[in-house]
Amino acid sequence: MRENMKSKLNHWLLMIALFLSASATANTNEVPKDYAYGVPLITQESEPFFRVILPDDVYEQTAWPDMRDLRVFNSQGVTVPFALYSQEAQETRTKSWPLRVFPLDAQPHKAGTQPQITLKSTSGIEVTLPLDSKKSSGRSLLLEVPQEEEDYPALSQLKLTWTRLPQNWQARVSVFNSPDLKSWNELIEDAPLMDLTSGSDRLLLDTIDLRDGRNMPHSRYFLLVFKDDAQPADLNLSAVTGIAVSGRPAQDYVTLAPSVKALSQSEAEYSWSSPQPFSRLIIKPAQSNAVLPLEIEYRSSERDSWHPLSKLGVYSVEDKESAPLELQGELIQAIRLKGINQQWSGMPPLVSGQREVRKLVFNAQGSSPFMLVWGNKTAAAQALSLDTLIPPKTHQWLTMPYAGKAQVQTLGGRERLTATTQAEKIGLWQKGLLWALLIIGAAGLVLLAIKVWREVQRQPE
Q: Which residues cross the membrane (predicted)?
């Protein structure tokens, strides 16, 4: 009987080994149904190449952040060659100049019916500005820009350097510019400045952005006017630097809104449906005329732990808002905001993420209609570089019209976003069968041991 049992066990092990060693040949011919979603493309001209503006849905519904699961099919169900690329960013250059600083004393007075304020320096420089009776003005500083090549540089930013104070403080300052000390134009109103300490961390907002979407004039003079109810009395400005930024990238972005979960009066979590390679984050207070110092953390997936991202102050004052937070290629699925020594009243800050717009060009092989599809976790990258798809020498004369788009269709559905490859399926089967083999083998050994023990008990002493 023992030999019969051993023979059955060997037979069963042979069948398991044959099953584990067998692997079905995967079907490498993809079809649109292998992908979650698709959109028919409308190509009326008979051109060899067409450009496609990707629907916004693509950015949130691809299974991979790098969009490797994009395909273009023709009417025969065959994939056609395509290129996926981003707009090339221009090189950004910065140059800075130290500015001469002249502290000014204020003397309010009236010139007819118009209230004015005259600002005088110890060296005799005098500046006269109209005075708004509804606003109070405090300390004022005159800045002189050095001349360069018979002109004055067009400054984009002013960076202030001050002696660090033992206490936290926030202030607001307005900026004027003038070519001759006589005619003055208000550039920025109530720009925020702050120097906050929380434990060993320091949050510094010391730069005023002058661009505001406009071309900056070549001004010789700038004037900083602090609000008298916000400026620390012992604030010592040691230097002011003018910064010119040229060659800013004219990049196109697609904006993706997150789901928001308020955790407390000073903490909120913002999450996206899938990890995103954001280029920048736009964060601003929900209330107007507000300044919020924030600590920002991020995670790359739902199972990831939180990592520090940045500490910064965001503001929304009049029609001015803080600049977006530029990122360095971090993959972000969620962020968490914490107020630094401050709570936000009512709604938490408003957040959105921006990633670069991707562009697609495909070769119209076969017959129309063509279909753009996306959303397949098992897909490998097939996109070519633009120069590989289209020889660079033909770019100048080649016509590439835009393909129209119909409505987005559901093809394989959302389950394709988490699909597994054939190799992964075989691996899961093999792992499951291996565990089953180990469990059955252990059970067999237990039964064999019990049988041996019983036989020993039956033998006469």
A: 432-453
